[in-house]
Design goal:
It is a single chain. The chain has two domains: 2-67 and 138-252, Rossmann fold, CATH 3.40.50.300; 73-136, no CATH class. The protein is of the alpha/beta class. Helices cover 32% and strands 23% of the residues. The strands form two sheets. The protein has a six-stranded mixed sheet with strand order 5-6-7-3-8-9, sandwiched between helices. The relative contact order is 0.16.
């Protein structure tokens, strides 16, 4: 079942076209990662899905009553502000102790409830943000570069937790990340974005696609070495953008 259907999405911000003719679908229980260079429209696409950005044209359809959980890139809390993890989970509205405890446990942060937010490590802070996103019992969990600033083992552990949550909660996951070597392994489907959808499909298909190599080169954190095997694609270059590989259409529908 589709949770989000996007067709012909165009977004203009400040007179600039940020997204052009994007077609995109998220189905129940899949982990989808969006990759692309800086300025490629990744965060804008997330904001369009959430409803924070209005399309210039095209359509964003969400399943009726879709419950979203959102983990931002960064959240700055003044280090002089005394606020515990438990109190933080009450913002902007109070949640029960049982709900807070369950969310923290699910996020792998069960021992942090009484700690000061200002005293948490980067990885602990992100797990608390994840717990907060889980309070809504999301059908779709959205993460915008949620491991920025974490070291590679911290990132890998965080993405492993995300995969476990998908299996445990049955939610879909949509991630934006620069950490290609990690997210390629954690994803069911990868979407390569550069203002439009350059290519998409299973990680190994995208890693071997010419459009992906053109954007990221051949030394992208081991992703190509991990997934390289030869495919023979035919690409349609009409209208200045490429279409999904023929054998990836199923994943895209």
């Amino acid at each position: 079942m589709s949770l989000v259907d996007i067709s012909g999405l165009n977004v203009q911000l400040g007179g600039q076209t940020v997204l052009h003719h994007v077609d995109f679908t998220i189905s129940s229980n899949e982990i989808v990662t969006i990759v692309g260079p800086n300025g490629s429209g990744k965060s804008t696409l997330l904001r369009a899905i959430i409803g924070a950005v209005s399309p210039s044209s095209g359509k964003v359809s969400r399943k009726a009553g879709l419950r979203l959980g959102y983990v931002p890139q960064k959240l700055h809390i003044d280090p002089t502000l005394p606020i515990t993890v438990r109190r933080f989970l009450d913002l902007p509205r109070h949640v029960s102790d049982a709900a807070a405890r369950d969310a923290l446990e699910e996020a792998g942060a069960g021992a942090l409830t009484g700690r000061q937010m200002s005293g948490l490590s980067g990885g602990q802070f992100q797990r608390v943000l994840l717990a907060r996103a889980l309070l809504s019992k999301p059908e779709l969990l959205i993460l915008d570069e949620a491991t920025q600033g974490l070291d590679q083992p911290g990132s890998a552990a965080f993405y492993q937790k995300i995969a476990e949550l998908r299996d445990h909660l049955g939610c879909a996951v949509l991630m934006v990340s620069h950490e290609l070597h990690v997210v390629m392994a954690a994803s069911d489907r990868v979407v390569c974005l550069n203002g439009h959808v350059c290519c998409q499909g299973e990680p190994e298909h995208v890693a071997s696609a010419p459009e992906y190599r053109a954007l990221f080169g051949t030394g992208t954190g081991g992703a190509l070495a991990l997934y390289r095997h030869e495919h023979h694609h035919s690409h349609d270059h009409d209208h200045g953008h490429d279409h999904t590989h023929a054998h990836d259409h199923e994943a895209a529908e």
